[in-house]
From TrEMBL:
Full protein name: Methyltransferase type 12
Lineage per the UniProt record: Bacteria, Bacillati, Actinomycetota, Actinomycetes, Micrococcales
Pfam families attached to this UniProt entry: Methyltransf_25 (PF13649)
Superkingdom in the source lineage: Bacteria
Any one biological process term the GO annotation gives: methylation
Organism: Pseudarthrobacter chlorophenolicus (strain ATCC 700700 / DSM 12829 / CIP 107037 / JCM 12360 / KCTC 9906 / NCIMB 13794 / A6)
Length: 287
């Protein structure tokens, strides 16, 4: 006979791992740029069976975005992969755009991305804090498409707004921004449980992230309209998606996190006219 008390007990049990989570996360540097660079400095294996939590080791997730990307992003423009990590999405994007530039705050991430096998000739990587004032300028000549996966949800609201301003400059008058972000609704214990942590064990890629990185937030329609407000950004399309993570536990649901995707284009500030007929002048000033 089913015991109605059991699910409740199992539900509460996961909170017994809280002291361990607190102990592990205490070692993560409070300085975010430092945390990211140390994290990437320690990565020795990517792809299937690798050490990176958000690396599913396949192009399955990207293929799920491809139609939406091709619907809204101008295929004649370069694409900038903001917060590219080890560059797996930069490499996938390179098949669809004349040039793909991966940019990351971590020098170790950019070096790892550049050293990965299979980088086509139209791919390059750069180190830049994309929340820094002016970071959107000078990366590419003219407007670019922008791809962002799993970056906004790890930033504070102030840094999200700073990043958005740089995305606006990068996109200029013709580029489109594509976002794919984790939008898990739940507390940190529920999040790590979803990713396969139990009282007895924590999957290695997850433990590495907990030890080294600040606890992520979530990013969905509400956060998007705050960071990229409708007055400054035209929302072309949005929807739900599954963000695919390292399939280390072998349990399918544990390597798919509820996510959010959107395609947006910066609105031209009123009174600003395009410099060229093709509207390819970069946007200037504040939105
Ligand atoms: C969760 S990872 C996602 C990596 C990659 N987009 C992917 O999906 O495989 C977040 C990435 O954002 C980078 N990052 C964090 N803050 C950043 C910033 N201010 N400017 C540029 N990159 C940043 C980190 O170094 C890390 O590589």
């Amino acid at each position: 006979m089913p015991n109605p008390a059991k699910p409740e007990k199992t539900g509460w049990r996961k909170y017994l791992m809280l002291p361990r989570l607190i102990r592990l996360s205490r070692s993560a540097p409070k300085d975010r740029p430092l945390a990211w660079d140390r994290y990437w400095a320690g990565i020795t294996a990517t792809g299937p069976g690798g050490e990176v939590l958000w690396d599913a080791g396949s192009d399955h997730e990207f293929l799920g975005y491809r139609d939406l990307i091709l619907r809204h992003l101008d295929p004649a423009l370069p694409v900038v992969d903001v917060g590219c990590g080890h560059g797996s999405f930069t490499r996938a994007l390179a098949a669809h755009f004349p040039q793909a530039i991966g940019v990351d705050i971590s020098a170790h991430a950019a070096a790892l991305a550049a050293a990965e096998p299979g980088n086509p000739g139209n791919v390059s990587f750069e180190v830049r804090d994309m929340t820094a004032p002016g970071a959107g300028a000078g990366l590419v000549a003219g407007p670019a498409n922008v791809f962002v996966r799993g970056v906004l949800h790890v930033l504070s609201p102030a840094d999200q707004a700073a990043l958005a301003e740089n995305l606006r400059v990068l996109a200029g008058g013709r580029g489109t921004v594509f976002l794919a972000e984790t939008n898990f609704q739940g507390n940190p214990v529920e999040y790590v449980t979803h990713l396969g942590a139990t009282q007895r064990s924590i999957p290695a890629p997850l433990e590495r992230a907990i030890r080294g990185l600040p606890m992520p937030g979530h990013f969905g329609p509400k956060e998007r309209s705050r960071a990229l407000p409708p007055a400054s950004w035209e929302l072309l399309e949005e929807g739900a998606a599954a963000i695919e993570t390292n399939p280390v536990t072998g349990v399918e649901g544990q390597s798919r996190v509820p996510g959010y995707v959107a395609a947006l284009r910066p609105r031209r500030p009123s009174g600003e006219t395009p410099k060229h007929a093709g509207e390819d002048a970069p946007l200037t000033g504040s939105s």
